[in-house]
Fold this protein.
Amino acid sequence: MRLQWIALCLLSPLVCFAQSPQSPDSPQPAAATDGTPVRDLEVVVVTGAQPGPGMWKVSKGDHALWILGTVSPLPSGMDWKSNEVVAVLKQSDEVLAAPGLAVDADIGVFRGLLLLPSALKAGKNPDGKTLQEVLPASMYERWAAMKPRYFGRDKGIEKRRPLLVANELYAQANRRAGLGRKPVISPVINGVLKERSMKLTPTTLKIRIEDPKAAIEEFSRENVNDLDCFRTALDRVERDMPALVARANAWATGDIEALRALPVENQQRVCTKAFVGGEYAKKRGIIDVEARIRAKWLEVAEAALAKNKTTFATLEMSDVLTADGYLAALQAKGYTVEAPE
């Protein structure tokens, strides 16, 4: 239900921006700010059987960590030919979960229900303001032009925080473009794990919140700087959908060079920075999150490399390809890193 999703977003933003509830409103055609109709961009999403990219190999001696670079969203109509990945999974001694942030609030079912009213309040702008009142005029004008297309006549969304609206807008635009309607990678990994009676090894940074109710109430009162998050979502929807589709297609077809040439600012990370930048988060030790997430994953990965002959992991393609990414960090530590052929 939506209340539970809002509570989850407030306590764990990395989960929030990976998942989005479906809007109940049927999208309607929008009008641009100059009065001309907004038309869907001509983008073609690949379908059918696709190979996906090869894996990176990180090794020291005869111990190897095989890494699949991931992209999100992916084409909804593709059928991933995952034979190579399945073969590695079936011989792996350990399978590492993707890096991320896990917020432990020790909330039982009853306590969770008690928090729902606070979570609902926190999902709205402070002092009952609307998006028109909290967004710069030029930004609101852009939003007003596309809102009917993705949210119809939903008036309630105007009272919600830009941080949450940005997530839903981005998800709706992806679905309309033929991206992200179904998971592609996780069912393959989970299927092999189930077959082998194995579990993912967590790599997430865990932060415990002792007072979730107070955290939610503080968030509801605080003016979080989430304009960058909202602006990024608008940019993605207005002009970057062709690049997002091209990136999804490049992953599906295994075109690594195209992926290198298609850097797209990560929507999730921009919005997470807005969430963790508030005073309520700093009070609870939610600081330097990206660096700590990276350090935690590297710690688990190195331990796995030391003890296992074969390990499998997934990382966002940006963390694989960039000069200061996770693989670059392992290479700097003396590991051999081999890109797929």
The chain has 16 helices and nine strands.
